[in-house]
Amino acid sequence: MPPRKKLSNLDRARAIGWLQDSVAARQVAPRLAVAPFVIIRLKQRFHAAGRVQERQRSRRPRVTSQREDRFIQRQAMQQRMATANNIRQRLQATTATLLLVVRRSETAYTTLACVQGVQSEEQP
């Protein structure tokens, strides 16, 4: 299954413009390479909220950068016997990030909690 395509704000505005010009959702969808249901939901959201921007998500904010994530993954792959604490110490030595919890996830390490300057208990 291919990854989902997110519509940019420009594409969303185009779709709403076409819909307001009486173009059917089934004709708009192929122009933007999305399913017709995506356009129908966009139209419903536009009529309900009056805007086309993507809504805010309520998720935990990222604390490690993509570069730090790649570093953690590379260390996990290069040194298979390294513990989470060893990788955390290497990351702290190379960057200024304090990792509180690191957990093995499939073939790479994934950070669970990462806060600069805040102390909490480590989880297994």
Describe this entry's structure for a reader:
It is a single chain. This protein has 124 residues and is mainly alpha-helical. The protein has 2 domains: 9-49; 66-114. Helix content is 47%, strand content 11%. It is built from 5 helices and 2 strands. It has helices at residues 9-20, 25-32, 36-49, 66-78, 84-94; strands spanning 99-105, 108-114. A two-stranded antiparallel sheet has the order 1-2. A hairpin with a 2-residue loop joins strand 1 (99-105) and strand 2. Helix 1 (9-20) runs antiparallel to helix 2 (25-32) and helix 1 packs across helix 3 (36-49). The longest helix is centred in the middle third of the chain and has 14 residues, at 36-49. The model is unreliable at 106-124 (pLDDT under 50).
When the domains are counted, the total is 2
The end-to-end span amounts to 34 Å
Low-confidence stretches: 106-124
**What structural category arises from helix and sheet content?**
mainly alpha
Tell me the strand order in the biggest sheet: 1-2
Number of distinct helices = 5
Question: What is the N-to-C succession of helices and strands?
Answer: HHHHHEE
Region (Disordered): 50-69
InterPro entries: Homeodomain-like_sf (IPR009057)
Quick structural overview:
The chain is mostly helical and 124 residues long.
What is the secondary structure topology, with strand pairs?
Elements lengths: L8 H12 L4 H8 L3 H14 L16 H13 L5 H11 L4 E7 L2 E7 L10
Antiparallel strand pairs: 1-2
Helix pairs in contact: 1-2, 1-3, 2-3
